[in-house]
């Protein structure tokens, strides 16, 4: 029947597939993958720049649309095919075009897989920077830095953070060696809740700063005229799209480890809600803190590694706040990095029959060899821009086309309804096949036109 799940080979069925132990573990891992640098160093700037609370209106709209289409779809697609993008695309095309289609689908599936690997390589450089700043905060070194710009500039140069970069990779892959249930799941169960707890602590501390009120006003008093500017809607779309980790890779892979009786509809909703809470928490910590001491609310690395360290130096108990902040950010970065690296590791295991250890070793070697050459801000910035503009949204678009268009009619609906307990509404096909696919194509075009929107 068209709605039945594709069957694997006898050898595939004989090998037990690692997976998440529960729905809660899966959701926590997905939240961990979604909460990343986009929430922390870009969202606060976007809100402040594009209308304050007015920006939240289009942002919430797009989060809801993308959560109930793209996030839900990638979860269900991965679970249906029990594979990452390479295997999932191959199985989808096989359902339409037999063996020839399977080969074509497998070849196409390598694009989001490689995109995930490339993004992880760049991300790992930033993780190294966070480790350095966490250590410097804990030792007291950062509190005594006179010029935070020069301090970061000395780190973010070619081969300037090799040791910290490699420590970050070693910690990440050490966890991944243990697999999904014993490694990724346990990591996220600790680090994802810890991120939220630490940011709540920071929120309380920042709220007591003299002058923080001006930051809250700038952040949340709506400037309604911004809604008449198409740029506000474009960047709200980009922020929502990239914040939810839509790429046809990470969420799809995590979905492949999901049990059939789990409700992906409620899971997608929960992930979208907590990802949004994380972004709001970051904004309510960073913008008021910056305003309290008269600094610029710039976005990206300058905010994280130049502006905020200078803010912490002037803040009572600033060294403690800096340690809490950089540890919280490291939690978000590591959980996202694990998700990104899991896509190529899963592909090596499922498509080439490699053991977990060998697959992790190969990906680690590639990440270390390539990443060491892009440690400067200019190099890693250009690398990340190319991947996020040209590859990531294309991967999400291809996954959507595969699941909602290439798979037989009714297949996507049947897979989403598994574990939901009741039929979903007629809105599903319209929202997924037309609205989401159209929005994703638009993100791709707008990203190229604007030089990045997320």
Automatic annotation (TrEMBL):
<feature type="transmembrane region" description="Helical">
    <location>
        <begin position="270"/>
        <end position="297"/>
    </location>
</feature>
<keyword id="KW-0472">Membrane</keyword>
<feature type="transmembrane region" description="Helical">
    <location>
        <begin position="50"/>
        <end position="72"/>
    </location>
</feature>
<dbReference type="InterPro" id="IPR037272">
    <property type="entry name" value="SNS_sf"/>
</dbReference>
<protein>
    <submittedName>
        <fullName>Sodium-dependent transporter</fullName>
    </submittedName>
</protein>
<feature type="transmembrane region" description="Helical">
    <location>
        <begin position="386"/>
        <end position="407"/>
    </location>
</feature>
<dbReference type="InterPro" id="IPR000175">
    <property type="entry name" value="Na/ntran_symport"/>
</dbReference>
<feature type="transmembrane region" description="Helical">
    <location>
        <begin position="151"/>
        <end position="178"/>
    </location>
</feature>
<dbReference type="Pfam" id="PF00209">
    <property type="entry name" value="SNF"/>
</dbReference>
<feature type="transmembrane region" description="Helical">
    <location>
        <begin position="190"/>
        <end position="213"/>
    </location>
</feature>
<feature type="transmembrane region" description="Helical">
    <location>
        <begin position="434"/>
        <end position="453"/>
    </location>
</feature>
<feature type="transmembrane region" description="Helical">
    <location>
        <begin position="233"/>
        <end position="258"/>
    </location>
</feature>
<dbReference type="InterPro" id="IPR047218">
    <property type="entry name" value="YocR/YhdH-like"/>
</dbReference>
<feature type="transmembrane region" description="Helical">
    <location>
        <begin position="104"/>
        <end position="131"/>
    </location>
</feature>
<feature type="transmembrane region" description="Helical">
    <location>
        <begin position="353"/>
        <end position="374"/>
    </location>
</feature>
<keyword id="KW-0813">Transport</keyword>
<keyword id="KW-1133">Transmembrane helix</keyword>
<feature type="transmembrane region" description="Helical">
    <location>
        <begin position="317"/>
        <end position="341"/>
    </location>
</feature>
<feature type="transmembrane region" description="Helical">
    <location>
        <begin position="24"/>
        <end position="44"/>
    </location>
</feature>
<keyword id="KW-0812">Transmembrane</keyword>
């Amino acid at each position: 029947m068209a709605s039945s799940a594709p069957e694997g080979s006898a050898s595939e069925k004989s090998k037990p597939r690692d997976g998440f132990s529960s729905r809660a573990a899966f959701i926590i891992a997905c939240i961990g993958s979604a909460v990343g640098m986009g929430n922390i160093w870009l969202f606060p700037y976007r809100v402040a720049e594009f209308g304050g609370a007015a920006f939240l209106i289009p942002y919430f709209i797009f989060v809801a649309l993308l959560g109930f289409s793209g996030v839900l779809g990638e979860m269900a697609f991965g679970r249906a095919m029990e594979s990452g993008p390479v295997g999932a695309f191959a199985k989808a095309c096989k359902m339409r075009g037999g063996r020839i289609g399977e080969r074509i689908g497998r070849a196409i599936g390598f694009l989001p897989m490689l995109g995930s690997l490339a993004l992880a390589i760049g991300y790992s450089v930033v993780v190294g920077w966070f480790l350095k700043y966490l250590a410097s905060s804990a030792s007291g070194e950062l509190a005594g830095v006179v010029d935070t710009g020069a301090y970061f500039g000395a780190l973010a140069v070619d081969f300037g953070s090799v040791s910290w970069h490699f420590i970050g990779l070693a910690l990440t892959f050490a966890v991944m060696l243990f697999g999904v249930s014993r490694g990724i799941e346990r990591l996220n169960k600790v680090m994802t809740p810890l991120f939220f707890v630490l940011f709540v602590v920071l929120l309380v501390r920042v709220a007591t700063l003299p002058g923080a009120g001006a930051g809250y006003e700038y952040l949340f008093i709506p400037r309604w005229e911004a809604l008449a500017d198409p740029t506000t809607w474009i960047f709200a779309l980009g922020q929502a799209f990239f914040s939810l980790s839509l790429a046809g890779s990470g969420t799809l892979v995590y979905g492949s480890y999901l049990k059939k009786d789990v409700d992906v509809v409620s899971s997608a909703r929960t992930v979208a809600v907590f990802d949004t809470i994380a972004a709001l928490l970051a904004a309510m910590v960073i913008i008021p803190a910056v305003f309290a001491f008269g600094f610029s609310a710039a976005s990206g690395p300058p905010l994280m590694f130049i502006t905020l360290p200078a803010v912490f130096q002037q803040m009572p108990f600033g060294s403690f706040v800096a340690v809490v902040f950089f540890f919280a950010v490291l939690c978000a970065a590591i959980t996202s990095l694990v998700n990104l690296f899991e896509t190529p590791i899963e592909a090596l295991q499922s498509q080439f029959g490699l053991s977990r250890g060998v697959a992790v070793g190969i990906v680690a070697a590639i990440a270390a060899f390539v990443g060491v050459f892009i440690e400067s801000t200019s190099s890693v910035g250009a690398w990340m821009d190319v991947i996020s503009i040209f590859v990531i949204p294309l991967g999400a678009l291809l996954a959507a086309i595969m699941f909602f268009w290439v798979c037989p009619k009714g297949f996507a609906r049947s897979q989403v309804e598994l574990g939901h307990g009741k039929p979903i509404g007629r809105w599903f096909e319209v929202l997924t096949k037309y609205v989401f696919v159209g929005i994703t194509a638009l993100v791709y075009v707008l990203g190229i036109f604007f030089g990045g929107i997320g």
